[in-house]
Amino acid sequence: MGDDPVLYQIRVDGHLGPTLLTAFPAFAPRQQGTETVLTGLLPDAAALFGVICEIEALGLDLLEVRRVRPPAKGDAP
């Protein structure tokens, strides 16, 4: 159970263009107002730390990191 990938949403200030989005291939980007929301699965905490470091290295403003819990199997939609 602890080895399962975890779904994250990461909010970054500003609209990331196609070039910057290539730095985050594991994520599906979505524009929300003046922010970019990256949603994707990460295998472990080290991968999350790597993404956060990449965001900082690119000079982007990190607004929020949220762990998203998908519905459990058998839950009603």
Order of helices and strands: EHEEHE
What best-fitting shape do the alpha-carbon axes yield? globular
Give me the side-by-side strand order of the main sheet: 2-3-1-4
Bin the strand percentage: 35-45%
**Uncertain segments of ≥5 residues (pLDDT<50)?**
none
Q: How many distinct beta strands?
A: 4
Helical residue percent? 10-25%
Q: Output the radius of gyration.
A: 13 Å
- Give the class from helix and strand content and strand pairing: alpha+beta
In this structure, how is the largest beta sheet organized?
Answer: 4 strands, antiparallel
Give the rounded overall mean pLDDT.
89
Supply the number of helical segments: 2
Distance between the termini: 22 Å
Protein model, in words:
It is globular, with a radius of gyration of 13 Å. It is built from two helices and four strands, in the order E-H-E-E-H-E. The protein has 77 residues and is an alpha+beta fold. It has helices spanning 18-21, 45-57, and strands spanning 6-13, 28-32, 35-42, 62-68. 9% of the residues are buried. 22% of the residues lie in helices and 36% in strands. It has a four-stranded antiparallel sheet, covered by helices on one side.
